[in-house]
Amino acid sequence: MIAALVSAPLAVATVFNAGAVNAAVLSGNFSFDGAGNTISFDENMLDFAGDGIFLSLKNGDFAGLDSDAKIFDISSGLAALDGMDTVMAPVKFIELSDGTTLNLTSFNDFTFTPQFGTTDINLGFSGFFLNDGDMTDAMGSITFQVIGQLNEDSFEGDEIFQASFSGVVFGTEDNVTVPEPPTMLGLGVVAAASAFGLKKKNS
Fold this sequence. Notes:
Layout: E1 28-33, E2 39-41, E3 46-48, E4 52-56, E5 68-71, E6 86-95, E7 101-107, E8 111-114, E9 118-131, E10 134-147, E11 161-171, H1 181-184
Antiparallel strand pairs: 1-4, 1-11, 2-3, 2-11, 4-5, 5-6, 6-7, 7-9, 8-9, 9-10, 10-11
């Protein structure tokens, strides 16, 4: 099943412990949003309407990057609503302007945060950045903002949801734990994106 990442509340969970990873080479963070790009998603896939995203609030080693980046669909291996992290083979998720790629290795359990008339569906992830053969631990979160009051039961049918999205990613020299969503609000990493309607699509 699916839950997602950063809009107002941010849910960023555990860090990927890469066994064969080289010495960490990147640190800092960036936030991103669709900048008009939207997502269709259900419990099995993340399907972006386009491949473009816009980076903002770039810090550390990411400060000098172009704001334009690419994001890639994920068709399997998504999180479940079972209280367990989902581990998967590395899959490319974001490509930065310098060729650095963010590759995901796990998703956290979906979480749901009701807002006024909408729901933020948060999905934490972890993995690694790959840059010129060097790997750096990474973690982050993406939030889909959907109109209506949704919870885990909403994903029991065959509905496909459409939403705006935003997120945040951290490159970590050391494995760290990121605060829970209420604390994350203090970081001010909120990408503005208007919610799209909840649609039912026949499979």
